[in-house]
Amino acid sequence: xLEPSGLYYPNRFARWFLLAMEDVMGKHxxxxxxxxxxxxxxxDHLPPDTLARQFDFAYMAALNEALETMYGARGxxxxxxxxxxxxxxxxMKHFGALxxxxxxxxxxxxxxxxxxxxxxxxxxxxxxxxxxQSIVEDAGEHYHFVTAYSPMCWGRSADRPVCHALAGIxxxxxxxxxxxxxxxxxxxxxxxxxxxQCVFRINKKPIGQ
Length: 209
What we know:
Number of strands: 6
CATH topology of the largest domain: Muramoyl-pentapeptide Carboxypeptidase, domain 2
Largest sheet: 4 strands, antiparallel
Structural class: alpha+beta
Strand content: 5-15%
Radius of gyration: 16 Å
Helix content: 40-55%
Mean pLDDT: 95
Shape: globular
CATH architecture of the largest domain: 2-Layer Sandwich
CATH class of the largest domain: Alpha Beta
């Protein structure tokens, strides 16, 4: 197990993530990952549906590391992206400011404004409810979603970015707020690979436009 970070997700966010893992991998797959991550106690005792910050970033990192151990770097990346997207769909899209983004009044505003509101709302939710402090920077044709400490890579060391699950959450969040468009999202800097913070580059224009 990785060293505890002293940084936390609320139980609710961790619960969504674990349920998303079960959605993607099935119950047996989730159990195997929890065993690999040395989180066996969680198999039959998911975090409660509360906003108490009690799920250490080291646990999230261990889950993501276990995905790569089980499926390899490429397969683990694909699984983490799917889990991230499922995590957003299972819970985050109904949470806080994101909940109203399916409303016709919101969908009636221009696409570029919906995208900006959505990505900034997601950063705001993480910053307010967890220790994943996140900001959004305007970088011309892109947005940079910047996270000082990502729970997906806490304590890890790699030769490439590894916060794939968070990239998946961003992808699905953008699809939700845009009304169904897909946006290219890539982690371009990662603490696991030696960067000072984790940075995701998000194209402002959807794929195909």
